[in-house]
Amino acid sequence: MKRFLAIAMAAAFAGCITTKETHLLDGPRGSGETRVVDTVVVSNTGWYFFFDLLPIVCSDPDDGGIKMFSDDLSVQDNLKVLDRIIRREGATGLENITSHETNESVLVFLFNRHVIYTSATLLKERPKEDPAAK
Amino acid sequence: MTVRLRILAAATASLGLAALAGGCYTVHTASSPSLSKLKLSGENGEIVEHVLFENTGWFLFYHIPIVCGNTADDAVLPMSFFSDQVTDDTVWRRMEERAKSLGARAVRTADASIEDVTFDVPGLSFPLVVPYVLCYREAQVSGVLVKDGSPKQAETDR
Questions:
Q1: How close is the nearest chain A Cα to the Cα of B2, in Å?
Q2: How far does CA A50 lie from the centroid of its chain?
Q3: Angstroms from B133 CA to nearest CA on chain A
Q4: Residue A37 counted as domain residue
Q5: pTM more than 0.90
C-alpha cells in the first residue's frame, strides 16, 4: 500500500511534457498555396512549493524525462519540442501559433501546478497540379 | 473565538496571503532556427520570436485592485499595489514595446482573460465560499514578433 501511494504521489507530482498531434494528410487548404500537415499542442507541467518559491519538478524537453528542483518551465522548452516536429514534418509555414499558461493551487498556495501550452498549425506548400493531367 | 472574529481573522489572513502571493508579471520569449525559417500565414516578414506576456493580480470586491504584477521596465518592486495593470491593453502594450526594441512588429495570435471570484477562506474549519470579496484575475497575450523585409534588405537599410 505504501509503495502504491509513493508511486501515485510521484506520478501526480511529476512534471510531464505531452504532445498531441492531428495529422491531416491531405488536409484543408491553409492560406495561399499551402495545406495543413499537422496541428500540434505541446504542454509542459511543473510543480512548485510555497508561493512558487521552490520548484519541485518539471519536465525535461530534451529527453522527455523529468528534472528535479529545476525551474525550466518556459515557452522556449515547448518550442524545442515543436521545433523537432517542424523538422520532422518538413513544414514550410505556420499558422495560429499561440501559448497560454494555467495555474492551480493545492492547500491555498502550498503546492502550485503550472502548465504551459503551445499550439500551432503547420503548413506545407501544396504540390503544383500538373496541367497535362487535366 | 466567536464566528465573527473567526471570519474577520480568516479574511485578514486571506488578504495577507494575497499580498504575499502578489501579482506576477511574466514574459516568456522563445525562438528557434526552424521557426525563423517558417513563413507565418498572412505575413511576409521573418519570425523573430514567439512570445507570451502575462500578468496576474488580486482584487477586492472585484473592482478594487490590491496587488498585481508590476509591468514597468524600471520597476523596483516586482509587484504593484492599488493599481490595475491586469488588463489586456497593458500587457499588449508591453508586447509592442518588446517588438519595437527588436525592430520587429507584434502580431497578436491569442489572448486570454482568466478570473476566479470564489475564494475558499483559509483558517476556517469548513470551506466558506465568499464570492466577489477576494478575486483573482489574469491577463495573457500571446503572439509572434515579425521583422518585415528580408535580412538582406534590412542590412541595406542600415
A1: 24
A2: 26
A3: 16
A4: yes
A5: no
